[in-house]
Write a structure and sequence with these properties.
Strand 4 and strand 5 form a beta hairpin. The radius of gyration is 24 Å and the shape is elongated. The longest helix has 35 residues. By secondary structure, the chain is of the alpha+beta class. Helices cover 42% and strands 22% of the residues. The termini are far apart. The strands form three sheets. A three-stranded antiparallel beta sheet has the order 1-3-2, covered by helices on one side. Strands 4-5-6 form a three-stranded mixed beta sheet. Strands 7-9-8 form a three-stranded antiparallel beta sheet. The chain contains five helices and nine strands, in the order E-H-E-E-H-E-E-H-E-H-E-H-E-E. It folds into three domains: 61 residues; 100 residues, GMP Synthetase, Chain A, domain 3 (2-Layer Sandwich); 65 residues, 2-Layer Sandwich (Ribosomal Protein S8, Chain: A, domain 1), CATH 3.30.1370.
Length: 242
């Protein structure tokens, strides 16, 4: 493998493009490490360029000559491993792209926020975290801003990357999860005794949290959201037997 090169540019996007040109390598084949995130500073003071360490993955590929095709099982195992590595790497790259876009967006608002952090939460979910002095202002009264921001982020990220999101603002989500867990505890015990049950009407992020927790508690039962009189609640029941 050739030694990685250091690239500096005003933005991460320009740094990736510059690296692609200098290495004559597709951006998708770049292996990168961000040494410094870009910053606009204040009135030009404290401005920082993006700095990345990068090399082309294709240059290190050296496949041995195989006189005849691999057995089917061996080929399938290799494909599974290659796809797993590619998906993992892609998720990390997506997290960087989303973080970069969100940072650019929230740099322009007047709230005092720390740097937005985006990282893989699991194989199909991105964790997006906002913190800082004014982060709680993004939650809003009764979480209405949180719901709106979560909705907008999901409708951007899910269609584009086919990923779910977990939005955490000043530990708001953690607090909501703990509140729902406390509410569900006696309901879960009752369902264990009676075999079925349902929640009170819930909305927004609360119903999604409750749905996840109830499915974890009852993996062998039918757990689903139902709507009645414009109110949503969750039912837990036995699967129907044919």
């Amino acid at each position: 493998m050739k030694d990685p090169i250091k690239i500096e540019a005003p933005t991460l996007e320009e740094a990736y493009k510059k690296a692609s040109q200098e290495l004559n390598c597709s951006i998708a084949d770049l292996e990168t490490k961000i040494l410094q995130h870009p910053s606009k500073g204040i009135l030009g003071i404290g401005k920082k360029n993006a700095i990345i360490l990068v090399y082309c993955k294709k240059e290190e590929e050296s496949k041995p000559e195989i006189p005849e095709p691999l057995p089917t099982i061996a080929r399938e195992e290799n494909e599974i491993f290659d796809n797993f590595y590619k998906e993992k790497k892609d998720l990390e790259q997506i997290a960087q792209e989303v973080e970069f876009a969100l940072q650019n967006l929230f740099d322009k608002i007047c709230f005092k926020l720390d740097r937005v952090e985006v990282k893989p939460y699991n194989e199909d979910t991105l964790l997006i975290e906002f913190s800082g002095e004014d982060a709680a202002l993004l939650i809003g009264k009764e979480g209405y801003r949180y719901k709106a921001l979560s909705y907008m982020l999901f409708n951007w990220i899910n269609p584009k990357y086919n990923l779910q999101i977990r939005l955490e603002i000043a530990e708001f989500l953690k607090t909501q999860e703990e509140m729902i867990r406390a509410y569900l505890a006696p309901l879960i015990e009752r369902i264990k005794k009676e075999g079925r049950g349902q929640t009170k009407p819930l909305d927004g992020v609360l119903i999604q949290i409750a749905l996840r927790q109830l499915r974890e508690a009852f993996p062998d039962k039918y757990v689903a959201i139902r709507e009645r009189n414009q109110e949503k609640y969750i039912i837990v029941n036995e699967f129907r037997k044919n």
